[in-house]
Amino acid sequence: MNIIGIDVSQGESHATLITEEAEKITFKFKHNKSGFQILSSYIKFNTIIIFETTGVYSAQLTTYLKRKKVKFYELNPLEAKLRIASLRRNKTDKNDSFKLALLSKTKLAEIKNHCNKQSSSPYESLRILSLRYKQLIKCRTRILNFLRSSLELAFPELNQIFKNAYAVLALQIFRMYCHPDFLVGLTLKEMTDRVYKSVSRRIHKNVIQNYCAQVWLAAKDSYPAVPADSLEIEITVTK
User: Counting CB atoms within 10 angstroms of each CB, which of 5, 65, 134, 176 has the fewest?
Assistant: First the structure.
């Protein structure tokens, strides 16, 4: 049985083939048609491929192997790290591909149960949806962190007043009054009416008035680090 260990990177992979005769061959290939032809030239009828799952980077490789009906195992990165940790002191892509191949050659029966299962169509759809959901959550978190840091410069009291920055009312007030100078000359009633008209009627006016009162009073004593016409404010509002 031939074993190919692959260390997947962005756009290309390094691979090591260990043949039945214990011959070691290293090569690399890009994740495109010509690159997969290179990989295909090393695949025989009795070849098994093993690699660590790397999310979107390994997606093209996984798709190619499934279409070609090549037997392969995707090893959870944490599991792979635990099993070959002692061999990772001098990490190189070629070295890692050899370790994966060697791991499969010597402990295939043991690691099979720790590999990601090759899902059928319905489960594959759920896996994709789950992956996209996690990516969206990370994206939302980055945006929120950016917003929080911007408010800390422009109107830090807003971060204290609104613990839930995802709320519709909070986001609308951030957009309209992310700097205390935007409230200069406005009465509390005028501010409340403007916010009320811009948000869903499902939010009770008393709730809006309560938050507006806190923001309106905080603006009187706030000392922002940036002026109202700064680029920081423009970016915050457009975001």
Answer: 134
Single-letter code of the amino acid located at 124: E
Q: How many CB atoms lie within 10 A of CB 7?
A: 24
DSSP code string of 54-99: -GGGGHHHHHHHHHTT--EEEEPHHHHHHHSGGG-TT--HHHHHHH
pLDDT in tens, 115-151: 555 555 676 678 778 888 988 999 999 999 999 999 9
What phi and psi values does residue 98 have, to the nearest 5 degrees?
Answer: -65, -40
pTM of the predicted model as reported, rounded to 2 decimal places: 0.56
At 229, list the tokens. Answer: 């016409």
Dihedral, CA of residue 161, residue 166, residue 167 and residue 169, to nearest 10: 70
Q: How far is CA 146 from CA 22, 157, 223, 233, 235, in A?
A: 53, 16, 20, 12, 10
Token pair, residue 217, equals 């009073």
Buried b (16+ CB within 10 A) or exposed e, 189-228: eebbbebbeebeeebeeeebbebbebbbebbeebebeeee
Quote the CA–CA distance of 148 and 141 in Å, as a whole number: 10
pLDDT tens for each residue of 36-88 = 999 999 998 889 999 988 878 888 999 999 999 998 988 877 766 666 665 54
d(CA 192, CA 205): 8
Q: Which amino acid is at 2?
A: N
